[in-house]
Amino acid sequence: MARFAHLLVLVSFVLASGAAAAAAGGAHRRERSSARLHLERAAPGATMAERAADDRFRHAYINAKLAAASSSSARRRAAETSPAESSAFAMPLTSGAYTGTGQYFVRLRVGTPAQPFVLVADTGSDLTWVKCSSPSSSSSSPAASPPQRVFRPAGSKSWSPLPCDSDTCKSYVPFSLANCSSPPDPCSYDYRYKDNSSARGVVGLDSATVSLSGNDGTRKAKLQEVVLGCTTSYDGQSFKSSDGVLSLGNSNISFASRAASRFGGRFSYCLVDHLAPRNATSFLTFGNGDSSPGDDSSSRRTPLVLLEDARTRPFYFVSVDAVTVAGERLEILPDVWDFRKNGGAILDSGTSLTILATPAYDAVVKAISKQFAGVPRVNMDPFEYCYNWTGVSAEIPRMELRFAGAATLAPPGKSYVIDTAPGVKCIGVVEGAWPGVSVIGNILQQEHLWEFDLANRWLRFKQSRCAH
Ligand SMILES: *[C@@H]1O[C@H](CO)[C@@H](O)[C@H](O)[C@H]1NC(C)=O
Ligand SMILES: *[C@@H]1O[C@H](CO)[C@@H](O)[C@H](O)[C@H]1NC(C)=O
Ligand SMILES: *[C@@H]1O[C@H](CO)[C@@H](O)[C@H](O)[C@H]1NC(C)=O
Ligand SMILES: *[C@@H]1O[C@H](CO)[C@@H](O)[C@H](O)[C@H]1NC(C)=O
Ligand SMILES: *[C@@H]1O[C@H](CO)[C@@H](O)[C@H](O)[C@H]1NC(C)=O
């Protein structure tokens, strides 16, 4: 505990452009500074059927992880009353699905000297990790595969391995191997992903270098002692196109919490339309960006439901009060939006399509499809309601999600009645099992700036074109 709290305040700040920038600054500059990274769509051309298949893996992972967290916190409570059991609980070995279509990549440099990596930016993840050279890969035939970016801990002056008996390893590293037979052993993990991919490695601390925004990108900040997994072996399809994962989840060890502790306690992202040209940029900002929703009267805010007892970690739950379509409030069982009743809704960067638990799904598609009664239906995977929109002048009804705190999200019609093929539009939500969590996917989030104020536990959002 004490060790990790101590790490959080150890932040160093490197100004690449030196004295001129420092002279212009002082305390004021320090407060305003933010770091901005570009987000790239992992598979811009992916079909909706491919996205839906990946979203299903991811949804299974989210539900499994929530179930595991609540049963392990129940076990922990039980263990407090019967100490004999406390050393013996096994965490399930599952983690996020990164098959790639729904995700965004981000470039980050880690280590000293800094080495660049392409990582999946993931609000559903707590451990940041990169592929590492493994003893077996160095001896395998060099002709077998193209050169890969791998992190070499031995080549980084700032790398320090985390022992398996450290508080950080025991309390926060998800799915860490319970076996710590010799305390100086490294903290290790073994993830099994829902698509049968896996990743194994050891956890350490190292630095990460980010560019500061508001300049020409030459000023850089170095975050020290970021918790970093070094994946020494992996299998499966999940990690073909990326070098690892950048964790943006609600967790003490996530990159988001580490970077937010340096940059104003918050991070934000803005996603351009999923059909926008490839060069249109989405971005991820740590700190108060120039366009921070916090500074703007047009922004809305709702509490982030972050429970103390880890049951919601690493996900970001929000409280949905109501859904309206064409001004009518839909009749939806309130339990669907209640985390404590095995429902609840999360905002997720790594899910494409919005997944609604059956009672909400039924109400939403019924209300929207009613407005399209005269439009010819067509079949198109993965959606239930698709329409031949050729020559159709039907209007897309306004759908609103009302969050606690009178914060209303009114996404553009194209975010939930989606262009699926030339001349075809579909009601772009998919059904999730009830009971189960609902997920606000990244297509419904597009063209909004979302700010996760971790210090004050607010989610703020406002419409935006995401053009800086
Ligand atoms: C971990 O995070 C929780 C809040 O999410 C905080 O109360 C706690 O102090 C943190 N622990 C450490 C060791 O930083
Ligand atoms: C723990 O690890 C040691 C050394 O790797 C091994 O000999 C032992 O069997 C393991 N114990 C368990 C319970 O897995
Ligand atoms: C993963 O492996 C299990 C057992 O071998 C198999 O039943 C399942 O279909 C596999 N899943 C995928 C997505 O390949
Ligand atoms: C993206 O590329 C197109 C041409 O391919 C160009 O017309 C457009 O200006 C570019 N947009 C940006 C934001 O660079
Ligand atoms: C939509 O309808 C038009 C005729 O109005 C037809 O030519 C076209 O093939 C249809 N498209 C689909 C996808 O069914």
TrEMBL record:
Region (Disordered): 135-158
Keyword Signal: yes
GO biological process, one term: proteolysis
Keywords: Aspartyl protease, Glycoprotein, Hydrolase, Protease, Signal
One Gene Ontology molecular-function label: aspartic-type endopeptidase activity
Matches recorded under CDD domains: pepsin_A_like_plant
PROSITE patterns in UniProt: ASP_PROTEASE, PEPTIDASE_A1
Pfam families assigned: TAXi_C, TAXi_N
Ranges of biased composition (kind: Low complexity): 135-147
Signal peptide positions (record): 1-21
Active site residues of this protein: D122, D348
Entries under InterPro entries matching the protein: Aspartic_peptidase_A1, Aspartic_peptidase_AS, Pepsin-like_plant, PEPTIDASE_A1, Peptidase_aspartic_dom_sf, Plant_Aspart_Prot_A1, TAXi_C, TAXi_N
Record keyword Protease present: yes
Family: Belongs to the peptidase A1 family.
Protein name (record): Peptidase A1 domain-containing protein
